[in-house]
Amino acid sequence: MSSSAPRALLDGRTAVVTGAAQGIGFEIARAFVDAGGRVVIGDVNLDAASAAAEELGGAKVARAVRCDVVDPAQVDSMLADAVDAFGSLDVMVNNAGITRDATMRTMSEEDFDLVISVHLKGTWNGTRKAAAIMREAKRGAIVNISSLSGKVGMVGQTNYSAAKAGIVGMTKAAAKEMAHHGVRVNAIAPGLIRSAMTEAMPQKAWDQKMAEIPMQRAGEVAEVASVALFLASDMSSYMTGTVLDVTGGRFM
């Protein structure tokens, strides 16, 4: 199921999407290009990012930049690359993330720190750096990717649930700071989305999650991407500080 984005929603606009070499991030980048936008794919895996950029149409519409979102200098140079190559920074999607699941009793301190660092500090770096550029232009949209795990907490995810809940609070605080500068900051909280990561789940865990979903199916990456496109575009021009659940009604 690929996105059938209206052509002109992001016409002439430039977006940076982190963690966009695959999965939800890649599908968001694809939806943005389909909507007339130009995209910089930031990812720690440059080879995968380059392949993704090529698949989206190459240099005229998509560029790949190696970026570890935990390092503010790398985030700076990724955003500078977007402005240099395409002339503006209109949309920032903070999507990069990892999981290191384990119960509290068995989770290492390193795995706690790493997940908090990539998700929470990485999203802070992206939000802060993008906002600094956007406020000069007096316009822009920042979309942060949280998770249902940040709303209800999941077993084995004290690190991930904490980070994703933190992204919600950060999104609201940043939205208040940036509203009078014309910059909107919103978040998406996906539920069970069919991807390489979730497909690897044990069948029992998958079945248990499915039983909690009123719509009785997993979501597709394109169904998250279309919501990201909505928040990135002028269709959501009077929305800031919101969190949109994309969960099929799970834990509503």
TrEMBL record:
Belongs to the short-chain dehydrogenases/reductases (SDR) family. The keyword Oxidoreductase applies. It is an enzyme of class 1 (oxidoreductase). PROSITE patterns: ADH_SHORT. This is 3-oxoacyl-ACP reductase FabG. Its EC number is 1.1.1.100. It comes from Gordonia sesuvii. The gene is fabG. InterPro entries: KR_dom, NAD(P)-bd_dom_sf, Sc_DH/Rdtase_CS, SDR_fam. It comes from the Bacteria. GO terms for molecular function: 3-oxoacyl-[acyl-carrier-protein] reductase (NADPH) activity. Keywords: Oxidoreductase. SUPFAM superfamilies: NAD(P)-binding Rossmann-fold domains. The keyword Oxidoreductase applies. Residues 13-196 form the Ketoreductase domain.
